[in-house]
Specification:
CATH class: Mainly Alpha
Strand content: under 5%
Radius of gyration: 22 Å
CATH superfamily: Clc chloride channel
CATH topology: Clc chloride channel
Length: 316
């Protein structure tokens, strides 16, 4: 009996060894999109659960713990980043775009691990970052790793990257439609991309995984709004202009600070993230809401449960 099973196993291995996956790329691409999206969904859900669990602890922490936690988290995360995972630097979205356009869709597994570990430490310790960029980089990296392990061509490898990014955004924010639009606009920069079908499949599959594990809880609970007067449209337009100006100023300030920190001596660069962590910790003494991603505060603001002064302080 054992020898019979061994013979069958040997025969299967020989048959598989003669199969050239490159001849069947079109047939397995759809199946790969489903599998990759499910895996990305599981990993991003784990990422969300870890960071939210750690972040919830800080909400009831004492003053000195609120100061020390982001400082220690950024110190450890920065050291790991520079020592072991240098390719995991940055927000994740520009790096994904570069890998797709200039690096033949190649993102190393070490980068994925580094992004998960360092981002979990940073977000969990209260550093004011978002989940979007790290999730995108992680999802794209998983898709790249699986495609390269299967020996897919460069073209098909590039087509799997958007699947991973859409799956990551859908799982991180419970927004499959927004995940598709984000991938087409920000990653592919092409709303008429040929891979739109696989991108939709990726977002939907990952979203199903999210619902099965965490349920269908929306990211924000938004009350029902009612248009009282047409002049409200002018206020919305003004808010749009102010939001655009604030976002532009934020990005320019971020790029300027990045250029300044990159000029520090190499031996001190692993410790430069701790400057940001310490700054966040000191701000948390006056406004604990600056710790973490801050989605709970956004919900409070949307439901009219936050004072205007607190909003301005958090904006600063």
């Amino acid at each position: 009996m054992g020898s019979g099973l061994g013979g069958i196993s040997t025969l299967l291995r020989r048959r598989l060894a003669r199969v050239d996956l490159r001849e069947h790329e079109d047939k397995i691409l759809l199946l790969l999109a489903l599998v990759i999206s499910a895996v990305v969904g599981l990993i991003v859900v784990a990422f969300v659960a870890v960071t939210e669990r750690l972040g919830s602890i800080l909400l009831t922490a004492g003053a000195w713990q609120r100061v020390f936690s982001p400082f220690a988290g950024s110190l450890v995360g920065g050291w790991l980043l520079f020592k072991f995972f240098p390719e995991a630097r940055g927000s994740g979205i520009p790096q994904t775009r570069v890998a797709l356009v200039l690096q033949k869709g190649i993102i190393g597994l070490r980068t994925v691990l580094g992004k998960f570990i360092c981002s979990s430490i940073s977000l969990g310790s209260g550093v004011a970052l978002g989940r979007e960029g790290p999730s995108v980089h992680i999802g794209a990296g998983i898709a790249s790793f699986v495609g390269r392990r299967l020996g897919l061509s460069e073209g098909h490898l590039r087509s799997l990257i958007p699947v991973g990014t859409a799956a990551a955004v859908a799982a991180a924010f419970n927004t499959p439609l927004a995940a598709v639009l984000f991938t087409l606009e920000e990653i592919l920069a092409d709303l008429d991309a040929r891979v739109v079908g696989s991108v939709v499949i990726g977002a939907a599959t990952s979203w199903i995984v999210l619902r099965l594990i965490l349920g269908d809880e929306p990211l924000f609970h938004v009350p029902a709004y009612q248009l009282v007067h047409p002049l409200e449209f002018l206020i919305y337009a003004l808010l749009g202009v102010l939001g655009g100006l604030a976002s532009t100023a934020f990005v320019k300030l971020l790029i300027w600070q990045r250029s300044v920190f990159l000029k520090t001596p190499r031996r001190w660069q692993p410790f430069t993230p701790a400057v940001g962590g310490l700054t966040v910790g000191l701000l948390a003494l006056a406004a604990p809401g600056v710790l973490g991603v801050g989605y709970n505060l956004v919900s409070d603001a949307l439901n009219g449960q936050m004072a205007l002064k607190m909003m301005l302080l958090l904006l600063f």
